[in-house]
Amino acid sequence: MKLGKRLQTLHDVVTEDYQHIWDCCCDHGQLGAQFLHSSQAHIHFVDVVPMLIAKVKQDLARFFPEAETRYSLYTQDVAKLPLAQYSGRQLVIIAGVGGDLTAELMTSLCCNLRDEVDFLLCPVHHHYTLRQNLQSLPLKVIHESLVEENRRIYEVLYLTSGKTGAAITPLGEAIWQQGTLSKRYLEKTLDHYARVAKGKPEAQAILSAYQHLTL
Ligand SMILES: C[S@@+](CC[C@H](N)C(=O)[O-])C[C@H]1O[C@@H](n2cnc3c(N)ncnc32)[C@H](O)[C@@H]1O
């Protein structure tokens, strides 16, 4: 199965071995299916919509008949995942949902961690406020980058609750070192917040923070 560039980037960023990979807000389940193919991890597919999980179940039975014991399916809210009940290295992926929802889910998941857990996030919009929220959680940056798909640029945030890694910053660090892609992302972001600030004065502070970035 060929993934789009965004999902392929998320897949390729993961170089560690995990015992459990959670494809959260999985919808079609394509990313989890790719990990089912490429890794030894147990893959957990989670979405709140029963019909979507039923379709993923059908697709997995058809395309991975030999891997029946290597995955689990859950129709549930990601905020309530029982991560502390599992042992071994875990990776939680939350991609393709808004930054505000991502922040809510992360706050809920992080208040109940037992062992070290890694997170791979690829939110849609509201990166600044998401990053501000993440700063209040016990997380460090393993890697961050930008990926462009269908003329839309996404931030990829690979984080860990472990001790090693860089501090999370509201604007990001390495995402501004990708040459013309970073330049275009900054232009788009400035345009966006300039528009938002017209109707919402509190966005002026965010606009101003991005205006002070030098690439
Ligand atoms: C646009 S899809 C993202 C699919 C995939 N992760 C991707 O990046 O392409 C968003 C999915 O999030 C699911 N979703 C939204 N809120 C959720 C929650 N709190 N818990 C579980 N799933 C949720 C929706 O049902 C929907 O299928």
Bound molecules: S-adenosylmethionine
- CA-to-CA gap between the ends? 37 Å
Instruction: Please report the number of helical segments.
Output: 7
**Low-pLDDT runs:** none
In terms of topology, how is this protein built?
Blueprint: H1 5-13, E1 20-24, H2 30-38, E2 42-47, H3 50-63, E3 71-75, E4 90-98, H4 99-110, E5 117-124, H5 127-135, E6 140-149, E7 152-160, H6 180-199, H7 204-211
Helix pairs in contact: 1-2, 4-5, 6-7
The structure holds S-adenosylmethionine (SAM).
Structure description:
The protein has a 7-stranded mixed beta sheet, sandwiched between helices. With 215 residues, it is of the alpha/beta class. The protein contains 7 helices and 7 strands. Helix 1 (5-13) packs across helix 2. Strand 4, helix 4 and strand 5 (117-124) form a beta-alpha-beta unit. Bound molecules: S-adenosylmethionine. S-adenosylmethionine is lined by residues 25-27, 46-49, 52, 77-79, 95-97, 101. InterPro entries: SAM-dependent_MTases_sf, UCP028234. This is tRNA (Adenine22-N1)-methyltransferase.
